[in-house]
Every structure is written in structure tokens, then in C-alpha cells.
Design a protein that fits this description.
This protein is α/β, with parallel strands linked by helices. It has 10 helices and 13 strands.
Length: 251
């Protein structure tokens, strides 16, 4: 927002921005101002929910990721994919060794849902080319302009690797499940905070299903928030109207 206030917004801007997460979060801006000056800047960034007093709910060791055994046809389909959409870092990092090996050896271009997955996969040696800025698989719509793919010289992905049960999350992509979630540890307790931030629909449903009927009713009475995407849709199915935060940050 500060960048747009200082330089103006609109299609004339030739700027790109990403949030890099490490010990601290930074907003990195690269590009060119309307006057021709090249921009390369880094700013501190703070995620919006932390500013508004929401408690981010984490599952800890309640959920474990377990690799699935793929059929020879599924492995062959992945091996011949011109590019892949990896719906979560665990779709590769928790996949069976033969899945990881074929993606690495074939150097298959990968699209991710956000920079966190991008960084995790890149550190593991996978070839990541772009992300959908926290919008998940639905964010691929922003890449539908074929000029984008022509510029990268990479075909648009038509295959998604994901968690079991989400293979049909996008009508235009065939989905292959490479891992599943397995319950472990002690059931979750009712969060004591009144303002709850949910990083995923799975997190909410795991907590909800762990609670008694009375505590489920108390949970639904709290104020909830999430990022844009399918998490909000999950909350709405339970009668919740969440506050929706953009994945980007306040700067």
C-alpha cells in the first residue's frame, strides 16, 4: 500500500513483489518506476492477523503426513507432465521416494500456491517457476494469459499433485493424491481466545471434530478469520462468516 501511495497504482507500473519468510518477513519489490528508475527494495512486513489480535491455530503433531503408493499409470502421468501444480509442499516432500525422484530427474517445472511452498521445494532441489500468491489452485486463473506461459517457455500445468480427498479441487486440472493426513496424538481442546485465525480448512475441521457438541457450539460463536481461498468456503459451510484477509501484508 505504501508503494502505491508513493508511486501511484495502475497498469503502467512494472513492479513485482514477494514476501520472503525467514527469521523475519520481508517484502521484496523489483521492477521499474514510470520514470524509468530501476527498483530493488526490501521492506519489513507483518502479516495482517498478527496486527488484529487473532490467535493462529496450529495442529502441532495432531496431523501427520503419510505417503501414498501410486500406480504405475499415475507415476507415468507425472513423469510426462509438461508442468505440475503442487498444491502443498507435502505433495512432494512427503510423497513416496519414486515420486520425488521422477520429478527431480525430469526437472519438471512446478507451480506452487505461495512463496513458502516455493522456498521449501526449491531448497529440496525442485524446479519451481511461479506461485499463485497464496490463492491456492484457484489462483492459476491469473496465469491464463498464454503470453505468460510463452514468456516462461513452459506449458500451462494440467496436472495437480495434492492431498488425498482434494484431487477434484480444480475443474481444469487432473489431480493425483501423493499423500494423506493421518490423525495422531491427543485430541485438540477448545481454543480459549475469542479471535481465531485458521490457516486451512483442514485445521478448522480437525479441531471441530475433536470437540464435544457443547464445545463445537462455543467454537462457532467465536470470531473467525482466514486468508482468501477455500478455507473461507469451509468455514461458511459451518455457518461462519469469517473475516477474510488478503495473503499480502500491511506495509
Amino acid at each position: 500500500l505504501a508503494v502505491l501511495k508513493a508511486w501511484g497504482g495502475g497498469c503502467h507500473q512494472k513492479l513485482g513483489a514477494s514476501v520472503i519468510r525467514g527469521k523475519s518477513k520481508k517484502l521484496v519489490i523489483l521492477g521499474q518506476k514510470p520514470g524509468g528508475d530501476f527498483v530493488s527494495e526490501a521492506h519489513p512486513a507483518t502479516v495482517v492477523p498478527e496486527h488484529k489480535g487473532y490467535l493462529r491455530i496450529r495442529l502441532g503433531d495432531r496431523i501427520l503426513e503419510q505417503a501414498l503408493t501410486l500406480s504405475s499409470q499415475e507415476l507415468e502421468r507425472i513423469a510426462h507432465a509438461p508442468s505440475l501444480f503442487c498444491a502443498h509442499r507435502h505433495a512432494l516432500l512427503s510423497a513416496a521416494p519414486e515420486v520425488q525422484r521422477v520429478v527431480l530427474e525430469k526437472k519438471i517445472p512446478i507451480f506452487t500456491p505461495g512463496t513458502e511452498t516455493w522456498l521449501a521445494l526449491s531448497q529440496a532441489g525442485f524446479f519451481v517457476v511461479a506461485c499463485t500468491e497464496g490463492l491456492g489452485v484457484s489462483g492459476l486463473e491469473q496465469f491464463n494469459d498464454q503470453k505468460f506461459f510463452a514468456h516462461l517457455n513452459i506449458p500451462s500445468p494440467d496436472l495437480m499433485i495434492t492431498v488425498k480427498g482434494r484431487e477434484s479441487a480444480h475443474a481444469d486440472l487432473k489431480g493425483i493424491a501423493t499423500y494423506e493426513h493421518v490423525l495422531s496424538g491427543s485430541p485438540m481442546a477448545l481454543p480459549q481466545a475469542d479471535l481465531l485465525f485458521w490457516p486451512s480448512g483442514m485445521t478448522f475441521e480437525t479441531v471441530f471434530n475433536d470437540l464435544s457438541g457443547a464445545d463445537q457450539a462455543r467454537l462457532l460463536q467465536k470470531k473467525h478469520a482466514c486468508f482468501q481461498g477455500k478455507t473461507g468456503q469451509t468455514l461458511m459451510r459451518y455457518g461462519i462468516t469469517p473475516e477474510i484477509f488478503e495473503w499480502s501484508t500491511e506495509v
